[in-house]
Amino acid sequence: MNKTAAEAQILVSGLLPELASLKDVDKVLCPPFTDLWVVKDLLRDTGIGLGAQNMYWEESGAYTGEVSPAMVAEVCDYVILGHSERRQFFGETDETVNKKIKAALAHGITPIVCIGETLEENQAGQTGDVVSRQVRFGLAGLNPDEGSKLVVAYEPIWAIGTGLAATPDDANAIHKNVVRGALAEMFGANAAESIRILYGGSVKPENASGFFSQSDIDGALVGGASLNAESFIAIAQAATTNT
Q1: C-alpha torsion 197→231→212→81, nearest 10
Q2: How many structural domains is the chain composed of?
Q3: Taking CA 9 as the corner, what is the angle to CA 8 and CA 15, rounded to the nearest 5 degrees?
Q4: Alpha helices for 32-153 (secondary structure H)
């Protein structure tokens, strides 16, 4: 929940010259709903994708304050679903995330599905169980073709906005053994290998290359650093040097 439409215009205008020139990495910006049309106009013909930060699963109706899949699809190619803050503050569950994923896919929107454990779960050695459960329940009922259209983002909740980050090796182990392992059980090894798994949680220019150099970290879901043009550009540049 950052940036008015006027502020978003300034930020994106500062990002565009460098981001648009980076050809070997996919870039997606996900501003608040009120900024989407402004940013869409700025991104026209740049090759940079646009995503929403959330979405409801119903087509229409008496759901005041919610935004439908058709409304998102009119503007965006991507939508973030199940972000930890949505789970923490707004009561989202694996089951409601599952409904949203299916609705997004039905409208041709690529879901960026967020999963991750709390500090307490991490310290109790429950990371594998929690993350694999979120994958299995969140993606339940999807076939391999649908699964291959997803992007998954592993974001340990204890690392979001705290300045703490999982080590590249530890994050990669979760991506490879837990997340991709669960995806392989659900959709098969070939589909699992094709699904991009992003890391999120205090990704900064200083640590981005360490994450991107890992075998099973396919990109980053960038939070606070995306609010600064120079920082976000530096992270995107780090991604291009590790493709």
Answers
A1: 0
A2: 1
A3: 85
A4: 36-43, 69-73, 84-90, 94-106, 119-123, 127-138, 144-147
Q: Are strands 151-154 and 110-115 parallel, antiparallel or unpaired?
A: parallel
Q: Are strands 219-221 and 151-154 parallel, antiparallel or unpaired?
A: unpaired
Beta carbons within 8 Å of 205's beta carbon, 6+ residues apart: 225, 231, 234, 235, 238
At residue 196, does pLDDT exceed 70? yes
Which two structure tokens, joined as six digits, stand for 124?
């109790």
Task: Please write the tens of the pLDDT for every residue from 42-75.
Answer: 999 999 999 999 999 999 999 999 999 999 999 9
Instruction: Indicate which residues carry an active-site annotation.
Output: 83, 155
Which residues neighbour 38 within 8 Å (Cβ) at sequence distance 6 or greater? 5, 8, 9
- Find the CATH number of the domain harbouring 163: 3.20.20.70
DSSP string, 217-231: --EEE--GGGGSHHH
DSSP letter, residue 109: P
Q: Is residue 115 within 8 Å of residue 153, measured between CB atoms?
A: yes
pLDDT tens, residue by residue, 78-105: 999 999 999 999 999 999 999 999 999 9
Which amino acid is located at 55 in the chain? Answer: M
Yes or no: say if 109 and 79 are a contact pair by the CB < 8 Å rule. Answer: yes
Q: What is the 3-state secondary structure (H, E, C) of 130-194?
A: HHHHHHHHHCCCCCHHHHCCCEEEECCHHHCCCCCCCCHHHHHHHHHHHHHHHHHHHHCHHHHHH
Domain containing 74 equals 5-240
